[in-house]
Every structure is written in structure tokens, then in C-alpha cells.
Design a protein that fits this description.
two-stranded antiparallel ribbon; mainly alpha; about 70 residues; elongated
Length: about 70
């Protein structure tokens, strides 16, 4: 038996794939919670928070002694 594995973003599948194909596929959804362990999830959250803070306009940021 041969298998076909398709990796695509959920929105792309539902917008561009024909409905009969979607109905025939065995679907598995991967998220950050299913791919990372707890320590990695905490680190990813800290990085996301840092990036949001760093990208916020009009705020003074200080990292490692430098004002950005």
C-alpha cells in the first residue's frame, strides 16, 4: 500500500483543495502544542512576547544594556 502525505496550512487546504479530496484525506493537525515539549513551549512564548514588545511602536526598549 502506498501513502501520500500532504503538508499544508489549514486555511490553504480549505480554500484551494477540492472538497472530494479533503473528504478522502486522513487529517492530522499539528500545532505548537503537539510539536514542542513544555520547556520548548515556554521558550517559544517568551520569544513571542519579546518580539511583540520589541516591535511595539513608540516604546523605549532596553535589552542587554542598549536602548533601542
Amino acid at each position: 500500500m502506498e501513502r501520500l502525505i500532504v503538508v499544508a496550512e489549514k486555511q490553504t487546504v480549505y480554500k484551494k483543495f477540492p472538497t472530494p479530496l479533503i473528504n478522502r484525506l486522513e487529517k492530522h493537525f499539528l500545532t505548537i502544542n503537539t510539536m514542542l515539549d513544555e520547556r520548548q513551549q515556554r521558550l517559544a512564548k517568551k520569544l513571542e512576547d519579546w518580539a511583540q514588545d520589541f516591535a511595539s511602536p513608540g516604546e523605549v526598549h532596553q535589552y542587554h544594556g542598549f536602548v533601542v
